[in-house]
Design goal:
The protein is mainly alpha-helical and 416 residues long. It has 16 helices and three strands.
Length: 416
Amino acid sequence: MTLDERSHLVLAFARVLFTNGQATDQTVAAAERLSRALGLRANLMPRWAELELQSDDKDGATISQVAADPTGVDMDRVASTIRAIEDVEAGRLTQDAAMQAIGAISRAPPAPTWLFALAAGAGAVALSVIFGVEHFAPVVLIFVSAGAGALLRRGLARLSANVFIQPVCAAILAGVIGALAVRYQLSSSLRLVAVCPCMVLVPGPHLLNSALDLINGRIHLGGARLIYAGLITVAISAGLLLGLALLGVSLPVDGPGRDVPIWEDVIAAGVAVASYSVFFSTPLNMLPWPVAVGMVAHALRWATLSVLGFGVAAGALVACIVVGLILTPVSRRSHMPFAAIGFASVVSIMPGVYLFRMTSGLVQIADGSQATLPLISGTIADGMTASTIILAMSLGLIVPKMVVDYLSERLTQAKS
């Protein structure tokens, strides 16, 4: 292959990693490994929507670019790409065969639509159990709403590439079904029928990847990822409130849930983790890791809240530290994107309910006539709680990851 052809091969591999949820540092490291195997000295510069590669060899230098939107999460594609890089390094895969291989990996289909819808329904039901759903009828409605939303998202994906249409339409559907449940007295004041199907739409891996980029000094890329995740969350909130408002129903600023027994909490957390793993196309041989770790983390969170009496942010911090310590070496060894596998393990801790209730409170305050002191204080409390939980989760997952990565690299250098 010529210099340009090898550079484009490296970019093709980096693009699959970058657009399917791999952390930026791991993407850059993988591109450098492949470049060395191809006889290049290369420097990958990732930006939002673009990858640029500066490469050179004994015959000259070149700069190549490729469009790459880091909006997807597919762990199977990432794992397959890393294995292909290892095959190139070991000489088991020729350069021409590598180009064909990465083309096939980039086109690998996600989970089947029926499985995607089933996982969405099961995940939403599991979250409703964690938040204290009490009756069978709301459980059925939550399953139907989340499953129908997943089918709607897959259908819209075939019609439009706009990344905001899918979550906002699914959230509108959840809001309408939730409002109907309120009308027919099938939903409690917690509005779990409306809220839980929207919880499965929260872009957690992008929040974690943005935090990783910001901590590592990639300010522009980290900021872009954070803005993207924030806009998705705003779209979900707006869709939910619009769906409720169509039938004259609001989302009250109440407590986010009821206490449940630890066995119920842990089992539901395991189901939620498995459901999110399906969303992220986790290879079946890797599925036990996030499920088991997620259940252990949720048990620790329950103990922190119920036994030790700490707040929700402290519970999230403890759970995420455990997840970070266990899953960082697992993700390194199995080539799984840490943001995806880590988020799947702690998905039930995400403060989506607080965010949705805060948004609803802000809308009611803007109305003026309903701006009571309890509403204002409840809205502020929900916003602060959501912010502290997100910060605790980010630190709890990222700091252990950075420590384990640093120690692993030092150990590798010592051995070499």
